[in-house]
UniProtKB/TrEMBL annotation:
Catalytic reaction annotation: ATP + protein L-histidine = ADP + protein N-phospho-L-histidine
Enzyme class: transferase
Name of the protein this chain belongs to: histidine kinase
Species in which this protein is naturally found: Bacillus taeanensis
One BP annotation, GO: sporulation resulting in formation of a cellular spore
Domain PAC: 141-193, 272-324, 397-448
Domain annotation Histidine kinase: ranges: 461-666
InterPro entries: HATPase_C_sf, HATPase_dom, His_kinase_dom, HisK_dim/P_dom, HisK_dim/P_sf, PAC, PAS, PAS-assoc_C
Key words, A-Z: ATP-binding, Kinase, Membrane, Nucleotide-binding, Phosphoprotein, Sporulation, Transferase, Transmembrane, Transmembrane helix, Two-component regulatory system
Database matches in Pfam families: HATPase_c, HisKA, PAS_3, PAS_4
One GO molecular-function entry: ATP binding
Length: 672
C-alpha cells in the first residue's frame, strides 16, 4: 500500500503515547502542555519517517516495473534498442533483438560501424538521411525504411531516434528503438492495393457509384456517376443534391428528385431498389436500375448512403423489342389465315389459332383435347405420325392429306411440320395446315380447260378438213339423184348420213369458237403467287427452288383470271421440265414506264437454240419428247386476247427468259 509506512510509524508512536498517558493517569499525575507537545512532535517525526519509507518503497516498485518493461523490450525479438556514439562514430550498444530483425549479431554491428549503412535498402537512403539530420540538429526523429537481412530477406523497420547531450550541452550520443513492422506494412500495402484495385474497378465500372454521408452530402463518386448528371469538373465533395443542382440546370429536377428518393430510403430503413429515368440533352432518356443501401451507426444514427445505378436503357429497349416480337408472333400466330398449332414432343396439341374453326369446323377448345392423328381417317394416321416423328427428330416435313370436315365433307390439306428448337433441342413441332380444297378444284378446272382448248384446236382443224370434202360429196349425190330414177331411197339415206356427219362437225367447231370471257380488274401479284404455290411442290420434287420478287403497289390489270393462270402454269411447267438437274426459277413482277406490267420468268435450264425460238408457239411444234406443241400456242393466244405480248430469249446451257407484258387496267380502258 502507498501509505503503509506512514500508517505503521504514526500508529506505533500513538500506541506508545497511549501507554505513557495511561501510566500517568494510573499514577494520578497531571499531564502538562509540554508533554502534549512532545507527543505531537513524536507523531510528526513518525509520519515523516513513514513517508520516507513509503517513497522509497514506491521507487523500488517503479524501478522493478521499469526493469521488467526494459527486460521485455530487450528480450523482444521484434524490437531492437541501439545507441550510437556520435563522438567516436561507432556502435555503443545494441539489444539482442537486432539479430532477429537484421540477421546479424550484435558483435558484427559493434565491429563494423558501416554495417548499418550496408544493410539499408538503396532506395530508402533518403529516409536515413532525414533521420540523421534531425538527430544531429537535436530533434527526436522517426522514419520507416527497408533493410536487407543477412539471408536476403527484405524487412520494414520503424525507427524512433533521440539525441542525448552531455553536461556541456554537446551531442554525446543518439539512441533509439527499431521495430519490425514488415507484417504491418505488408498488410497495409495489401489493403492499399485492394483499395486501389477497388477504386480502379469502381472508376472503370459502367455503373453509377456514389457514396453520401448521413446528411446527404456527396463523399465520392466514380467518373460515370458524375457524367450521368453532367458533373464532370465540379467540386462535388461535401455538397448535397440540392446544392449540386445549381451547377447543372438541365439535370436540376433529376437531382432534386434523387434527394427525395434518398429520403424515402432512409424512412424505409433498408435496401431499396427502383428504376429512375434520367433525361438526356439530345431529347432521349436513360433508364437506371438503382439500388440504395442505407448505413447506420451503432446508435442507429445515419452514417452514409451507398447508391448504385446501372444503365438498363438498352435492356429496356430489348425487353420492349422482345415484347413487341412476342406481340408480333402472337398476332402472326393468331391472325394467320392458315391453321397453325403447336404440338409437344408427345403429340399433344398445346396451342392452336382461331383459323381452326374456319378450316375444320372444330373449336379451339375441342382441338386441344385430342391428338392430331385422331382427326384423320385411320389409313392416314400412320402417315401423319411418320412425318410428325421426322419433325421431332429435327427434320421439317411437307405433305398433303385429307380429313373429314365437322360438317361431313372431305377437305384437302397441305401440312408443313416445323421443329420448335430451343437451345439446340427440339421442344415441339409447329404444324401449319392450309386448306387446299379450292386449289385442288382450281387445278382440276385448269386441267380441263387446257384439255378443252387442245381439243378445240384439234376440232377446228379436223372439222375444216372434213367439211370441205363433205360439201363436194353432198353436191355430187344430189346431182346423181336428179339424173337417176328409182333410187331415191338410197339417195335419201346417204344425204341423211351426210347431214349427220355435218352436224357432228358443227358440234366439234363449237369447241374451237372463242368463249365469252368475263374480264375483270385483278391484281396480278396474287394470281402469280397462287400459280407458284400450285407448282411449288412439283418444283421441290425436282430439286428446284422458285423465288419471287414482286413490287408492291402494282396497278390492276383487266383479265380473265383462269386464263392468266393457265398461261403461267404452262410457262413454269416448261421451266421445271427444262431443268432436270435442279436449280432456281426466278419470277419478277414490276410496272414498266409504258403503263404495262412485266412478268419475267427466268430459269436455269438447258436453253433453246435461236433458230428454234422463232418456231415456238406454232401449232404442234415442240422441243419436248412427249410434248404436243399446244401449250405455248394457247398461251400466245390468251395473252394476245388480253392485248399483251410474250417475248422469249434464251442461251444454250445458261437458261431461258420469258417476258410477258400486260397492259394495266387504266391503259386498257383508255385504249378501248
Amino acid at each position: 500500500m502507498r501509505y503503509m509506512g506512514r500508517v505503521f510509524g504514526t500508529g506505533f508512536v500513538f500506541v506508545l503515547e497511549l501507554f505513557y498517558t495511561y501510566s500517568i493517569y494510573i499514577g494520578e499525575e497531571t499531564i502538562t502542555l509540554s508533554q502534549v507537545v512532545m507527543s505531537l512532535f513524536f507523531l510528526v517525526i513518525a509520519w515523516q519517517f513513514g513517508k520516507s519509507y513509503d517513497n522509497k518503497t514506491l521507487q523500488i516498485k517503479e524501478l522493478q516495473a521499469a526493469k521488467s518493461e526494459l527486460d521485455f523490450i530487450l528480450d523482444n525479438k521484434n524490437v531492437a534498442i541501439w545507441s550510437w556514439n556520435e563522438k567516436e562514430n561507432k556502435t555503443m550498444s545494441v539489444s539482442a533483438g537486432i539479430e532477429e530483425l537484421y540477421g546479424y549479431t550484435r558483435k558484427e554491428f559493434s565491429e563494423d560501424p558501416s554495417l548499418w549503412k550496408k544493410v539499408l535498402y538503396p532506395e530508402d537512403q533518403h529516409v536515413i538521411d532525414s533521420i540523421r539530420r534531425n538527430l544531429l540538429s537535436g530533434k527526436t526523429s522517426y522514419g520507416e525504411f527497408r533493410i536487407v537481412r543477412k539471408d536476403g530477406q527484405i524487412r520494414w523497420i520503424q525507427d524512433f531516434g533521440t539525441p542525448l547531450f552531455n553536461e556541456e550541452g554537446k551531442l554525446w550520443k543518439t539512441s533509439g528503438v527499431a521495430i519490425d513492422i514488415t507484417e504491418h506494412r505488408n498488410a497495409q500495402e495489401a489493403l492499399e492495393q485492394r483499395e486501389s484495385q477497388l477504386h480502379t474497378l469502381i472508376n472503370a465500372m459502367p455503373d453509377f457509384v456514389c457514396f453520401k454521408d448521413g446528411k446527404g452530402r456527396w463523399v465520392t463518386a466514380n467518373p460515370f456517376g458524375l457524367s450521368v448528371f453532367g458533373l464532370e469538373g465540379v467540386d462535388y465533395e461535401g455538397k448535397t443534391d440540392t446544392e449540386l443542382s445549381e451547377y447543372v440546370s438541365f439535370y436540376k429536377e433529376t437531382l432534386l428528385y434523387c434527394q427525395i428518393s434518398d429520403e424515402e430510403t432512409w424512412r424505409y430503413g433498408a435496401i431499396t431498389r427502383c428504376e429512375e429515368t434520367v433525361p438526356q440533352p439530345n431529347g432521349q432518356t436513360k433508364v437506371f436500375d438503382v439500388i440504395k443501401v442505407p448505413l447506420y451507426y451503432d446508435n442507429h444514427e445515419r452514417k452514409g448512403l451507398l447508391v448504385l445505378g446501372r444503365d438498363i436503357t438498352d435492356r429496356k429497349k430489348a425487353e420492349a423489342h422482345l415484347e413487341e416480337s412476342k406481340q408480333r408472333y402472337k398476332s402472326l400466330f393468331e391472325q394467320h389465315p392458315d391453321l397453325v398449332c403447336a404440338i409437344d414432343t408427345k403429340g399433344r396439341i398445346t396451342q392452336v389459332n382461331k383459323a381452326i374453326e374456319k378450316v375444320t369446323g372444330y373449336t379451339q377448345e375441342y382441338f386441344q383435347k385430342i391428338t392430331p392423328k385422331a382427326l384423320f381417317p385411320h389409313h392416314y394416321a400412320k402417315k401423319v405420325m411418320h412425318y410428325f416423328n421426322k419433325a421431332v427428330m429435327g427434320q421439317p416435313s411437307h405433305y398433303e392429306i385429307q380429313m373429314n370436315h365437322k360438317e361431313g365433307h372431305v377437305i384437302d390439306l397441305e401440312v408443313e411440320h416445323i421443329p420448335i428448337v430451343v437451345n439446340n433441342s427440339v421442344e415441339g413441332v409447329y404444324a401449319v395446315v392450309k386448306d387446299i380444297t379450292a386449289q385442288k378444284k382450281n387445278e382440276e378446272v385448269i386441267r380441263r380447260s387446257e384439255k378443252l382448248s387442245v381439243v378445240g384446236e384439234l376440232a377446228a382443224g379436223v372439222a375444216h378438213e372434213i367439211r370441205n370434202p363433205l360439201t363436194s360429196i353432198k353436191g355430187f349425190i344430189q346431182m346423181m339423184q336428179a339424173n337417176q330414177v328409182g333410187n331415191d331411197r338410197y339417195f335419201q339415206i346417204m344425204l341423211s348420213e351426210l347431214d349427220r356427219i355435218n352436224f357432228i362437225v358443227s358440234e366439234l367447231l363449237i369447241l374451237s369458237k372463242p368463249q365469252v370471257l368475263s374480264f375483270k380488274e385483278k391484281r396480278i401479284t396474287p394470281i402469280i403467287e397462287e400459280v407458284i404455290t400450285l407448282l411449288d411442290t412439283q418444283a421441290i420434287m425436282n430439286n428446284i427452288k422458285i423465288t419471287a420478287k414482286m413490287d408492291s403497289g402494282l396497278p390492276p390489270v383487266r383479265c380473265e383470271e383462269n386464263q392468266i393462270k393457265q398461261v403461267f402454269i404452262n410457262v413454269l411447267k416448261n421451266a421445271i421440265e427444262a431443268m432436270p438437274s435442279g436449280g432456281e426459277i426466278s419470277v419478277h413482277i414490276k410496272e414498266t414506264s409504258s403503263n404495262r406490267i412485266l412478268i419475267r420468268v427466268i430459269d436455269q435450264g438447258e436453253g433453246i437454240p435461236e433458230n428454234i425460238i422463232k418456231k415456238l408457239g406454232e401449232p404442234f411444234y415442240t422441243t419436248k419428247e412427249n410434248g404436243t406443241g399446244l401449250g405455248l400456242m394457247v398461251s400466245y393466244k390468251i395473252i394476245e386476247d388480253h392485248q399483251g405480248t410474250i417475248h422469249i430469249t434464251s442461251k444454250v446451257n445458261e437458261g431461258t427468259t420469258i417476258d410477258v407484258h400486260l397492259p394495266t387496267a387504266a391503259l386498257t380502258s383508255s385504249e378501248n
